[in-house]
Amino acid sequence: MFSKASNFVYGVDSAFLIITGISVFFLVVLTALMIYFVIKYNRKNGKPAQQIKDNMALEITWIAIPMIIVLYMFYIGWKGFIPMRVVPEDAIEITAEGSMWKFKFEYPGNKIADTLVVPIDRSILINLKSVDVLHGFSVPAFRIKEDMVPNKPNYSWFTAGELGDYDIYCTVYCGLNHSNMLGVIRVVTQQEYDKWLLTLHEKLKDSPQGMKILEKNGCIACHSLDGSKVVGPSFKGIYGSKRKVSTSGSEREITVDDAYITKSIVDPGADVVVGYPAGLMQPYKSLSESDLKLINEYLKGLK
After folding, report:
1. Are 292 and 262 spatial neighbours (Cβ–Cβ below 8 Å)?
2. In whole angstroms, what separates CA 260 from the centre of its chain?
3. Among 32, 41, 72, 157, which residue's Cβ finds the most Cβ atoms within 10 Å?
4. Which of 241, 240, 245, 231 has the alpha carbon at shortest distance from 273?
5. Checking DSSP bridges between strand 92-99 and strand 123-130, what pairing results, if any?
6. What count of other Cβ atoms lies within 10 Å of the Cβ of residue 202?
7. How far is CA 283 from the centre of its chain?
8. Beta-sheet strands, E only, within the chain
9. Cβ contacts of residue 287 below 8 Å, gap of 6+?
């Protein structure tokens, strides 16, 4: 009856079915009683109303029974939730990073990939983080969902019990392309996982400081490095180029230099490049002067 996609399916689905069953039962019973009383005790001419006195036993009954039922529903929910926060000591640790609008995964050995590949019947700990805004990490088939909050570590874990591909969704509205923020969990055998892990490239440790700052603040999600057009202008070849911008509703041509880049970071709505939407980028006033200088130096060399 229950899927074996993950170890949490039984607990979550059991709670859902029991709570739904209780809710449907009382919906039917209370609706039927309401209709019965409306018909039986409707007002009739010539029949005087009767005063109904207190009934202590009845009042205790309709307070005690709903309270017991609610506590029972809380218990089955709690029983299913607690295991989700207790991670086995032998779990494989993987970091999932959310940014506008993609997931990236870092594996043991400082290796990175865009797909989450895991071995079957092994506990997997997913450390969750966001580099820009609030995201959601949800795998409906595994019955797991956790938030990815900037500057606030979070985690989720699971043990996959069936081979195959499972969808990952971002369940928190995170901007323009939120609906395109999808990912895949691929469950494979231990041998396939070990072989796949060897094919991954290591995460570069010697990236330019300016690039690291751009990555840390989620800039790469909206500005490409290869010239392709995404949400904002590409960083490739931008320094020293001439651009038409809209300033207070009027168009003018500017040359992209240190001053323009710095202003675009701390006050992105001041001079918006024509052809791109305004109001999507948040101001990054927390960046220091040294950070801004490193960004400018990096963009100068990105031809």
Report:
1. yes
2. 33
3. 157
4. 245
5. parallel
6. 10
7. 22
8. 92-99, 102-107, 111-113, 116-119, 123-130, 135-139, 144-148, 154-159, 164-169, 182-188, 242-247, 250-255, 272-273
9. 213, 217, 265, 266, 295
Q: What class does CATH assign to 209-300?
A: mainly alpha
Cα distance between residue 42 and residue 120, in whole Å: 63
Q: Where are the domains of the chain?
A: 9-85, 92-199, 209-300
Q: Rounded to whole angstroms, what are the CA distances from 171 to 31, 130, 134, 147, 217?
A: 35, 13, 10, 8, 21
pLDDT at 74: 94
By CB atoms closer than 10 A (0-12, 13-18, 19+), residue 130 is buried
Kindly state the tokens that stand for 130: 């966001």
What are the structure tokens assigned to 258, written together? Answer: 């240190």
Of the candidates 160, 211, 205, 213, the one whose C-alpha atom is nearest the C-alpha of residue 187 is 160
3-state class percentages of the chain: helix first, strand second, coil last, to nearest 5: 35, 25, 40
Question: What does the buried/exposed string (b/e) look like for 9-22 if buried means 16 or more CB atoms within 10 Å of the residue's CB?
Answer: bebbeebeeebeee
DSSP 8-state assignment for residue 40:
H
H or E segment to which residue 245 belongs: strand 242-247
Cα separation, 292 vs 258, whole angstroms: 9
Mean pLDDT, contiguous 10-residue spans, the chain (303 residues): 83 92 94 91 72 83 92 92 91 90 85 87 92 90 92 92 92 85 91 86 64 76 71 82 84 85 85 81 82 83 73
Backbone phi, psi, residue 66, to 5°: -60, -35
